[in-house]
Specification:
By secondary structure, the protein is mainly alpha-helical. 68% of the residues lie in helices and 0% in strands. The protein has helices at residues 4-29, 46-56, 65-85, 89-110, 115-119, 122-132, 142-149. The radius of gyration is 17 Å and the shape is elongated.
Length: 153
């Protein structure tokens, strides 16, 4: 039996952790953490992120690479903001989990072994997102405010 005293703070930590991780990755690809080559910076600009996107989607037509890079960026921005707000948490968490599993699969087929998937905790994040989708009553969220103000909910 789950303890409600642990589920509510845990879902908040998962929402905050995933939301900030998504937004941090987006900030990196726009140079907000520093330029390419700076220690701790993965991309530093959108060009380097697009080249990385090409590396992990080599099996797709190259013409689609910019579209895929932008789709990932828009998805990560949207999921990051919605997770932080706790808006449509179940649907957002399912989408985030799907996006993370897609990243994990692309990383796996594009490089030898699962090293990158494990090093960047992509499966852990995907699992956390999917578990978050099972929380029936996310507290400290926009969803909770709407539910509280709607007597029919």
């Amino acid at each position: 039996m789950q303890s409600r005293t642990l589920v509510q703070p845990a879902q908040l930590v998962v929402r905050f952790g995933l939301g900030t991780a998504f937004l941090s990755a987006v900030a990196d690809r726009f140079g907000l953490w520093g330029p390419a080559g700076t220690p701790g910076v993965a991309w530093g600009d959108f060009l380097h992120f697009t080249m990385y996107t090409r590396d992990i989607t080599w099996f797709m037509p190259a013409l689609l690479t910019p579209l895929l890079a932008w789709m990932a960026t828009i998805g990560e921005t949207l999921f990051g903001v919605l997770l932080l707000l706790g808006y449509r948490t179940r649907e957002t968490a399912l989408g985030a989990g799907g996006l993370l599993l897609t990243f994990a699969l692309s990383m796996t087929v594009s490089s030898p072994g699962l090293h990158g998937v494990f090093t960047y905790s992509v499966l852990s994040a995907a699992g956390a997102a999917l578990l978050l989708a099972t929380v029936p009553d996310p507290a400290w969220s926009f969803d909770a405010l709407v539910r509280k103000s709607d007597p029919a909910a």
